[in-house]
Design brief:
The chain is α+β, with helices and mostly antiparallel strands. Helices cover 25% and strands 24% of the residues. Strands 28-27-26-25-22-21-20-29 form an eight-stranded parallel sheet. Strands 1-2-3-19-16-15-10 form a seven-stranded antiparallel sheet. It has a five-stranded antiparallel sheet with strand order 4-5-6-7-8, with no helix packed on it. A hairpin with a 4-residue loop joins β15 (168-171) and β16. α9 packs parallel to α10 (525-540). It starts with 6 loop residues before the first helix and ends with a strand. Residues 1-27 have low confidence and may be disordered.
Length: 630
């Protein structure tokens, strides 16, 4: 067993896995006969039940079916047994059963026959009410308004800068998860017309008139529920190896000489680095924020800025061969060139609305009538053709910014980018980094970051909470703007942020154009030393994280977990959002300017993690409340 986990906890995990395996019925194992959808008529509405994917049941109210990109449609529905008697239609699979009677009552049971939830009679095409034992609901996503809370009593799916909310929850007291969906079209904007809320006796799903789809996932624990939810969304693809290292990003790369100077300083100073990311300046000589809907004839969305990349193929090849550094550029989901805009409008491929402005909650909008409608397959084909040459030229991955004009923009945008990438690199591993997300993007190898955070201690303190809430909501590969994007950071703040980042799935610094870049030589000696130590630790962890990523791909087991997921029976850690598990390592970062860290350790024996190999000791720490630093 890993020393940070301990024999007792490891034995518990192995025993739990063995017990769960006994519940599977071989005759209903995934991969058997399909499960035909069973439909009953209720008050003129079609209500249909079946399995959905290999871990869930699907309940559909109304027709036609919904285009739901959150769920992996390539996964066969689990085999089932259908039974109809005394006015009740029941679909049974290895993980439980779902039934609906002529009165419109839906009942979900687990594999042992225990009732998990029962609906009120379905009488409306805008509302579904389910019974609940109360308790806690996890998985809704998060924003700066609630990142410190792991649970909620209501949620509405939406995407904004610094905010992603999902149509999902896991109900701990009831023992199941639920993922809802309604139609999202080009007029829907950043929010889905769907909410769920609970008064702790019922859970009400409410939506606009039209078809509604609900996936119900029986699972006895938050961990098992999250794994089954991830299975429903599709395999979280492994990122390329370099993505597990460190990246340097900023807005304001000046020219070719500046890039070379930065890379040389990283190498000369022995600061580990695997990739850099450039903002607007890599492809354009101006930003497009002030453009009107007509765009500009002099603006080119799919080229290069010769000041930075005068010979793109040769320049990008040199970064890889001379410095062993990959290159990524920012992408915006809109067009600035007037001729392209005229063509796209003639095809009906432009969204009618603009991009939400500011942070969260949003303030105003911009880029009106210039955002691409990526939900249109033909538009994606056009975009992919425009993007293909970048992969041949040597651009390794994409940094996707400001795609919140529609709830599914980031998903379909990535579909187009995957097509462009694999057209030129069919055996390569795609990778992108996105400012917001919808569930299911992990199967595209689309990572996310927590938006334009500010350089202050409050936003640092919220980082672990954003991380674990987004992981429970369906996005596992999460990073952030280390040091803070908006405002000027300090050495101590940057140091503490780097120490958190070393344990996050994606580690990258970033900063606005008006402040010194978050590169080590721009800070004092103490910060430079701490910077190097954090990067050395990050790279010591690469084999560990890479192995955990493979486990995530194979078994849907998240390696980033809130403590309540790892220790569900320990009430002392049930609400902690400032600590998290990185595999078998409990990460309790210093998040205060005075250096004090209040730590709650679950019951049992813990071993202090060694930041440097030469300082490794077997220092035993007992579970309970601890205070360090100051």
């Amino acid at each position: 067993p890993h020393p940070q986990l301990g024999r007792r906890a490891m034995a518990r995990h192995v025993a739990s896995a063995a017990l769960l395996s006994l519940a599977v019925r071989p005759d209903l194992a995934v991969g058997g006969a399909s499960c035909p959808e069973q439909t009953v008529q209720l008050n003129g509405m079609n209500v249909s039940i079946s399995t959905g994917g290999n871990t869930a049941f699907r309940l559909r109210i109304g027709t036609p079916n919904i285009d739901n990109p959150m769920v992996d449609a390539s996964i066969p529905d689990a085999a089932c047994e259908v039974k109809k008697e005394k006015g009740v239609t029941t679909v049974t699979s290895s993980f439980g059963s779902l039934s609906v009677c002529k009165a419109g009552v839906v009942v979900l049971k687990d594999s042992s026959g225990l009732v998990l939830t029962t609906s009120k009679p379905i009488s409306s095409n805008t509302k579904l009410e389910l019974s609940t034992k109360g308790g806690k609901f996890f998985g809704r996503g998060a924003s700066p308004l609630d990142h410190h809370e792991l649970t909620t009593a209501e949620a509405k799916p939406k995407v904004y800068n610094r905010a992603t909310y999902t149509p999902y929850y896991y109900s701990k007291n009831d023992g199941y998860g639920a993922l809802g969906a309604v139609k999202v079209d080009r007029n829907s904007g950043s929010e889905m017309d769907l909410t769920w809320k609970t008064d702790f006796t019922t859970v009400a799903w409410e939506h606009g008139a039209g078809p509604f789809e609900l996936y119900l996932i029986p699972a006895p624990t938050l961990l098992e529920g999250t794994k089954s939810y991830y299975d429903l969304l599709g395999k979280q693809l492994m990122l390329p190896l370099y993505a597990f290292g460190f990246g340097a990003s900023r807005w304001g790369w000046k020219d070719k000489a500046y890039i070379a100077d930065v890379l040389q300083k990283f190498r000369d100073g022995q600061y580990c680095i695997d990739y850099i990311i450039c903002d607007f300046e890599w492809f354009a000589t101006e930003t497009d924020y002030a453009f009107d809907p007509a765009g500009k004839s002099t603006y080119h969305d799919f080229g290069y800025n010769p000041a930075l990349l005068p010979s793109p193929k040769a320049n990008l090849a040199a970064y890889d061969s001379d410095y062993q550094v990959k290159f990524a550029g920012i992408r915006k989901p809109r067009i600035g060139n007037s001729a392209d805009l005229d063509f796209l409008r003639s095809k009906g491929w432009i969204l009618p609305n603009g991009e939400p402005a500011g942070s969260y909650p949003p303030e105003g909008h911009y880029a009106d009538m210039r955002s691409l409608d990526f939900a249109i397959p033909e538009m994606r084909d056009w975009y992919a053709k425009k993007m293909e040459h970048y992969t041949t030229d040597g651009v390794s991955f994409w940094w996707n910014d400001e795609g919140e004009a529609n709830y599914y923009t980031f998903y379909y945008w990535n579909v187009a980018q995957v097509k462009a990438f694999h057209a030129k690199a069919p055996e390569g591993r795609f990778f992108s980094l996105n400012r917001a997300w919808s569930p299911g993007m992990g199967r595209l190898a689309a990572a996310v970051w927590t938006g334009d955070v500010s350089a202050n201690w409050e936003d640092l303190k919220g980082t672990p909470g954003m991380l674990v809430n987004w992981v429970m909501g369906g996005a596992h590969y999460v990073g952030c703007d280390i040091g803070g994007f908006n405002g000027e950071t300090t050495g101590p703040l940057l140091t503490r942020w780097l120490q958190v980042g070393a344990f996050m799935p994606v580690m990258r610094v970033h900063s606005v154009i008006s402040v010194p870049a978050h590169f080590p030589w721009n800070f004092d000696d103490a910060t430079q030393h701490a910077y190097r130590r954090a990067l050395e630790l990050r790279y010591r962890l690469v084999p560990y994280h890479y192995s955990l990523a493979h486990l995530l791909y194979k078994t849907s087991t998240p390696w980033i977990r809130p403590l309540v997921m790892e220790f569900p029976d320990d009430a002392t850690v049930a609400d902690i959002s400032t600590e998290f598990m990185d595999g078998a390592i409990l990460v309790a970062p210093v998040l205060r300017e005075d250096g004090v860290r209040e730590v709650t350790l679950p019951a049992g024996d813990w071993y202090k993690f060694a930041w440097e190999p030469e300082s490794a000791t077997c220092l035993l720490v007992k579970g309970g409340h601890q205070s360090f630093g100051g």
